[in-house]
Amino acid sequence: MSAVTPPYPIAIAGASGRMGRMLIEAVLAADDCRLSAALDRADSPALGQDAAAFAGRTSGVTIGADLDAALARSRFLIDFTRPQGTMAHLEACVRHGVAMVIGTTGFDEAQKTAIARAAERIPVVLAPNMSVGVNVTLKLLELAAQALRDGYDVEIVEAHHRHKVDAPSGTALKMGEVIAAAQGRRLQDCAVYERVGHTGERPAGAIGFATVRGGDVVGDHTVMFLGSGERIEITHKSSSRATYAQGSLRAVRFLAGRASGLYDMFDVLGLR
Ligand SMILES: NC(=O)C1=CN([C@@H]2O[C@H](COP(=O)(O)OP(=O)(O)OC[C@H]3O[C@@H](n4cnc5c(N)ncnc54)[C@H](OP(=O)(O)O)[C@@H]3O)[C@@H](O)[C@H]2O)C=CC1
Ligand SMILES: O=C(O)C1=N[C@H](C(=O)O)C[C@H](O)C1
Asked: Catalytic center at which residues (predicted)?
């Protein structure tokens, strides 16, 4: 990616979604950013509307479905959509040399590999949670997991709004990965995602997940380290999606001027 100076021209995918709208407001409010395009699906009722119409404002950018036209006038694409949409956007970003900030969750292993391959050609920030608080919580979990390696059972409980389509959340899975790695293990070898019926006793070393869905919960995550005679609970609660949008703009600024590479919010926030 060649040098880019502010105001950074940013395209938003999933423009009429919960995060898309939050991102459009954040880009319009940031002095060093410029809304260059707003994208939605070809059959979206939002096509043809002003990108800020939902807020009763005018941005001068119309929501469209022409990905190539949008990327031709952009240097960054922020994508909070669905895995299938992200993969199509990724291929187009490589063709146009556009940097990507990916907040979408629910990727399978093949899709994660494709993102890593694309990041050999364009710079990409991929993170299941862009908030500063969650990423600091991940560091706390690393420390706790190292100190509580023996004799403590790990359970991760997450709650989200009734519209969320993937489970466990990308954040909960990342928490499990961070804890397992801090203990020299792999999440796929110890994760327990379901318990029903006669389960038998808890396997030693398991990392258990539980999912709550309902109402308008923005995003709650609690990790329990359950020992004999005590338990530690580390909780993060989001009360606004604005934190995810602000984190995404920090990711854009981090990517400006980088040629390629796959990064996460630890890189963006200097937490690695
Ligand atoms: N990393 C982070 O910090 C965060 C990540 N997320 C993740 O972001 C994603 C989006 O969340 P949210 O905004 O709540 O979801 P919404 O359903 O509200 O919005 C998704 C948007 O993407 C569009 N979309 C869906 N499928 C496709 C596709 N195949 N191609 C192009 N566009 C598509 C939708 O259009 P349509 O309505 O027409 O289907 C909609 O505009 C989820 O994966 C969620 O887990 C959410 C919050 C924070
Ligand atoms: O879908 C959501 O809303 C959220 N998704 C992300 C996830 O899956 O972890 C981040 C946040 O929890 C909100």
From this structure: 160, 164
